[in-house]
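Hey team,

Sharing the GlcNAc-PI de-N-acetylase run so nobody has to redo it. Sequence (245 residues) first:
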Amino acid sequence: MPERVLLIGVYGMELVECGGALAANAAAGGQSFATLMLCRERMRADVSKAADVLGVEVDFLGFRNGYVAVDEEHKRALVRAIRTVRPTIIITQDPEHSLADLDPDRRPAMTLILEALGLASRDFAADDGLEPHAVPTIYYMTPSRPNCVVDIASHWEQKVAAMELLESQMEFSGRHWSEQLTPADLEALVPGFAALDSDLERGRAVHRALDKAVHIYHGIGHHGRYAFAEAYRREGDFHLPTLIR
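Structure output:
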């Protein structure tokens, strides 16, 4: 069923990490949106290209790295985004995962997101000229304890292509893994790794291997029905008219 899906992300790569579900919704006739808090200028161009591949409309809030706060200014920005899109489904980071994640800003961002979800349907910031919007269904991405998976096999190549467009992220990943893993481990992970001549290509190659393994694990590797799957945790109970397979 087509929906209005809004990803509220902290960083740019989250758009691609949820890219399978977002692309599947767009392909089904729905509308997929992403509102991103932190995304540096160079990364914005990459993310915009990736969003085009996935059929996602992206908006950058322009928050400052290291200065995300649960204050009126930040709450207003997120509430405005929710009221503008008026989604039926929201995807955002997992509260459990974000608590122990050492990426800066994730912990205040999670509290900010939950506050904004609560305020969007109330009379907070009524002077923004937008009607309140009731809290929709919420899914947490890359959760510590998933309770559902989404079939993304038909959109796997789109997701790979979108990830490879995040060139600044791929360059960072290439440098990081080259420092963290031994040459033997890197060669086992990506045969021919030593012959790759740039951080960009090294990052792309390891991401291809890593992302494929993760999505197969949540698909057929986890006694599932799908070749490739994205894992999510739905907030609250599932309300079903009848039992489903």
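The chain has two domains: 4-145, 150-226.

Ping me if you want the raw files.
A.
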